[in-house]
Amino acid sequence: MSYVQKVMDSVIQKNPGETEFLQAVKEVLFTLEPVFDQHPEYVRAGILERIVEPERLIIFRVPWIDDSDTVQVNRGFRVQFNGAIGPYKGGLRFHPSVNASIIKFLGFEQIFKNSLTGLPIGGGKGGSDFDPKGKSDIEVMRFCQSFMTELSKYVGADIDVPAGDIGVGAREIGYLFGWYKKLKNSYEGVLTGKGIEYGGSLARTEATGYGLIYFMDELLKSNGKSFNGAKVVISGSGNVAIYAHQKVTELGGKVIAMSDSDGFIYDADGIDLAAVKKIKETERKRIKECTSIVGSTKFYEGCTNIWDIKCDVALPCATQNEIDIVIAKKLVENGCFAVGEGANMPCSIEAIDYFINNKVLFGPAKAANAGGVATSALEMAQNSMRYSWSFEEVDIRLKNIMVNIYNKASEAAKKYGHEGNMVVGANIAGFIKVAEAMLAQGVV
Ligand code: NDP
Questions:
Q1: pTM of the prediction?
Q2: In this predicted model, what pLDDT tens digit does every residue of 135-148 receive, in sequence order?
């Protein structure tokens, strides 16, 4: 039995039933096999055995009172997965599906993603099974205050710096920051994704979506293709999806479909981004309402059916496991030549293998959606300096980071015998930096 298989078996035994976490670990571990042949010192130091074990997993009760004076109880999580290269960094997700397995899969991936950015940030993630949908602003505030009352014991500008993720946007970050400041009497960069008025970075809102397209543009150009004239399907209509749409359109592509968890909208003339922003960002309504703004836009129920639409480029930007092997086959059959993961782990392992075997240009999440956390690290840098850069300065840095990530992943893939395979390249490049730091710091 191979060394990697032995470690995987132990992870399966220690984390029973945690399907998302096991999927994320499996996806990384088997791509690292060539590294251990060249670096036996990593095996001796037990790097792999340590990297799959979170440094700390905090689970806590979050009681709060809703608008009808009823006590509600949610569960809060923070995983501080690996702090070898910097303070723990990773978003908070508020969604009813949140559990330990989902937080651990996200935290594990975050280690490698953060490493790839080249910035000094360790891997963490957190969240709650609280659903902000349909709650009043006051309910969301009460929940955020209760959540932060406990979380504040474990975070800090030099310890652990959370950000947003699904269900956590500017509103939630504002409430969380305000409560941390009150509890600690300290004005520090403990969260990123803050409002511009109180320490946020320009271009953070746009960063994950823009970064995804910068990365994919590099991948397309290196293979003689481009967004110009391409038909693009984007799942989701949240933060990542909206700014991916904006950048695709700037580069001459046409986004013909977007979705939310109810269904998807389709428009052969291109989805009107202003309408999506109005409905989703300003009014917090359902995507089907876009049809009342633009006559040519049609709504269809069932969010996964969005992948039946013929497209050149598919950008899953909603959630994990959106694309399985059946959908992957359909996309390839329909002529899709590139897939970029805006969401975390939106494609199953079988789907990824199918894309790669069928020469689809594939941008894995750890590399392709790293622009958000990279810009969060730029927000931390600006907070430390008590200074802020212009939108253009941040955007240029973001673009450079995404191009560097592309180059690092390509070089690592080539060096370890998998030229062109961005999954292998991103995993290996992300892993080696963390492994070297762990080796240097001894057994901790
Ligand atoms: P948002 O909450 O802003 O938007 C999420 C979107 O995905 C919504 O349209 C939502 O629809 C849809 N969605 C969520 N869950 C499901 C589901 N189970 N089934 C179908 N649709 C769903 O989140 P973000 O845009 O911030 O995040 C999207 C993805 O990108 C996540 O995987 C996240 O981890 C990843 N990501 C985000 C980063 C960021 O900076 N924000 C950084 C890196 C990765 P509905 O409104 O109906 O729930």
A1: 0.97
A2: 999 999 999 999 99
